[in-house]
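To: structure desk
From: M.T.
Subject: fold request, one chain
Message: Could you run this one when you get a chance? Sequence is below, nothing fancy, just the single chain.
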Amino acid sequence: MNSFATNARRRCFRGSLAILLVLVWAGVAWAQSEPTIVRVEEDWELVMGTPDPDTDAPQVNCAISPTGNLEGWHAALELNQQGLPVYAAGGLQLQVWEGDVAVSDRRFPNGAVLATPGEVIHWTQSMKLEDGNLTFDIISGSSTTWGAFGGQGYLKASVPSTLSSLNAYSPAVSAANSGVSYAANRVQSLTLKRVRYFTSTGAQIEDNTARVVHGQD
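Reply: Done. Structure tokens follow.
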């Protein structure tokens, strides 16, 4: 083999090796730059049609999970019903589950039943990972029926967690596992309006994609 061909192959090998090293470095840099999510906030909106207080209608359930499923720790907010430990009409209840096992429940003191046509209810479901604990909390709630709710500690619960981040959270899981569980015809819409992510460095990332969980045609 002549020296020209040999040198050409060497240059080709060196070039390929340089490209490979750049790609490996880029992959490491990307992995290192991926933000660590430690808190998530979901803004929800429920627009009533015509409720029926005589039948406790409608009833709504909204879930949130730190992972891509409901097989581990997750929480659910029940509106106009309180299912644990026994059913009670009206009010608000935050439930924490580990798979199919209910481990905690918190009730809001005002147990009124929905009765106002066209009422619009807003609230934020938050989830925070800190000091080995996963905390679910309802904050910034507003309604005609229950007034201001959330943020007072009534709808807040913590469980131990080995998670190192909330990066596996997905709003699609929340939307897929939420809805109007009873008398859907009495609800105009249920929408996950936006999601905010908070990183370990204090940065905030906002997703303003509205996800309609229930809507009248």
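Reply (cont.): The longest helix spans residues 3-33. Let me know if you need anything else for the meeting.
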